[in-house]
Amino acid sequence: MRLEKIIARSRIIDLRSTDLKGALEELLDVSITRSPELKRDVLLRGLLQRESTMTTYLGAGVALPHVRVKMKRRYILAIGRSRGGVRHERTKTDEPVKLILMLLADEKARDYLQVLASIARLVQDQETVKSLMEAPSLDDLDERLTAALSGITARPVQAQQSRINRMMIRQADNVAKGTDCSAIMVFGDTFTGGIEPGSWRSVAKALLVTRNLVDGDNEGSGFAETIQVRSFSTQRLAQLRSAMLVALTRGVISFNDRICCIGGIAGSNQFDTMVVVDVEREFQTLLTGHTDLLPEDVKPEVLERVIAVATELAVEGREGRPVGCLFVIGDTGKVEKLTKPLVLNPFYGYKEEDRNILNPFMDETVKEFSSIDGAFVIRGDGVVVSAGSLIQATDNDHALPSGLGSRHAAGAAVSVATQAIAIVVSSSTGQVTLFRRGVMLPLMEKGMGLK
Ligand SMILES: Nc1ncnc2c1ncn2[C@@H]1O[C@H](COP(=O)(O)OP(=O)(O)OP(=O)(O)O)[C@@H](O)[C@H]1O
């Protein structure tokens, strides 16, 4: 889905209203003109109801109200800018909303959560929001938003043409060839603005790894595939592992592959690291004779999302303090038999779509509940079944390194007793660890890495 296609200049307006209801009415007026099947009152009610159960305020003056209805088009996106600000009761800080992106989606649109997540990710980037807010005219705003959603930044990036970068790229090609690598994995976020489309020219198959928006179209980019990894640790070796894990679960690479990786510090505009990885050896301990890294019922994007939230929690903590957390993903039928609620389940009664970890608004909710004792139990399709659950599995066969206590033991044990994957954020060390069949794979280690 090419996201820029859902933008239309006629649906980009400067808002006059100073309250949310009025602003939504203005946005609806420009959205439904060519869709007579859509009823303004019904949509408004749906949007406001959604807002009252779970806010769509993303922070930093941006809101993304959305609703699903039966409609002919798949998506309609309307954008309202307010210089004076719109009052939004659910913003924590009373900060006025300056930019509203209202998304109407057909109830049958299957990539709805992905589209929502991609737009949310884009407007969580402060640089982008600033550039949209400061656009001299609505035509400019249209142009900037279209460019941002197309994955093309307004700033031309020539950085990868520097002498060192050119040499690193050439050497990566030589190393890949000389060591029989099946692909080169390139960490695109090394460059502000990413890698210029078409500027990557290696003989070996190249895979782009990035945190930025991916619209699935690699044509003309020079890359065979783009792997989106939402949250990277700043440590390069941990970045590598996360990206490989995502590529593996998505079937982009296989255990028999050898990959040449090239990257650098995010935003530094310079490649500084090259590593050759035998995938099987890297993940050997985790496989222990099996070939399935991912439990049958777990969607790769769900695991990716949980890893992203877990790493963000480990890096950011909560209100300046470190937090610990345990996520148990997949095989929920069995997992639930091994759990006991420690508190009333805070997710009880919410619609599945609203409590799906793929829903971009769940990030904050999950982080908010991370301080509750106990584990998050997450279904393979992303629906959060419960939080605050005590895991009652025991495992006497796998010894954990000293210093890891009962949270890690519970994660390890539940991954032995069931097919689930457990991800643990340690409050004492900030480590993020994945458990599968009792075997641990550190995804982020404090103090490790090259940086
Ligand atoms: N069986 C369990 N199920 C769910 N949560 C648990 C379980 N055991 C412990 N926890 C959670 O882990 C928290 C920390 O426990 P403990 O310090 O023993 O674990 P740890 O593995 O050392 O983790 P950390 O590195 O975060 O301290 C507990 O307060 C509790 O919230």
Characterise this structure.
With 451 residues, the chain is α/β, with parallel strands linked by helices. It has helices at residues 20-31, 40-53, 112-123, 126-133, 138-149, 163-178, 236-249, 279-287, 300-316, 332-337, 362-369, 406-417; strands at 12-14, 57-59, 62-63, 66-69, 75-86, 97-106, 183-187, 206-210, 225-228, 258-263, 273-278, 325-329, 339-341, 375-378, 384-391, 421-425, 432-436, 439-444. The protein has three domains: 3-149, Mannitol-specific EII, Chain A; 163-287, Pyruvate Kinase, Chain: A, domain 1 (3-Layer(aba) Sandwich); 300-444, DNA integrity scanning protein, DisA, N-terminal domain (YojJ-like (1). Strands 13-15-14-12-16-17-18 form a seven-stranded mixed sheet, sandwiched between helices. Strands 1, 2, 3, 4, 5 and 6 form a six-stranded mixed sheet that branches. GO terms for molecular function: adenylate cyclase activity; ATP binding; diadenylate cyclase activity. Residues 1-148 form the PTS EIIA type-2 domain. It holds the Pfam family DacZ_P.
Question: Which labels suit this protein?
Answer:
single chain, 451 residues, alpha/beta, Mannitol-specific EII, Chain A, Pyruvate Kinase, Chain: A, domain 1, YojJ-like (1, seven-stranded mixed sheet, six-stranded mixed sheet, binds adenosine-5'-triphosphate
Uncertain runs are 152-157, 447-451
Share of β-strand residues? 15-25%
Number of helical segments with 4 or more residues: 12
The sequence of SSEs as H and E is EHHEEEEEHHHHEEEHEEHHEHEHEEHEEE
Name of the top-level CATH class of the largest domain: Alpha Beta
Helix content: 25-40%
The tally of domains stands at: 3
Q: What is the radius of gyration computed over CA atoms, rounded to a whole number of angstroms? A: 23 Å
Strand element count: 18
Q: Would you identify the CATH H-level superfamily of the largest domain?
A: Mannitol-specific EII, Chain A
Per the CATH scheme, the topology name of the largest domain is Mannitol-specific EII, Chain A
Cα distance, first to last residue? 36 Å
Named once each, the bound ligands are: adenosine-5'-triphosphate
Whole-number average pLDDT? 84
What's the CATH architecture name of the largest domain? 3-Layer(aba) Sandwich
Main sheet summary: 7 strands, mixed
Keywords: ATP-binding, Nucleotide-binding, Nucleotidyltransferase, Transferase
Protein name: DAC domain-containing protein
Pfam family, one: PTS_EIIA_2
Domain PTS EIIA type-2: 1-148
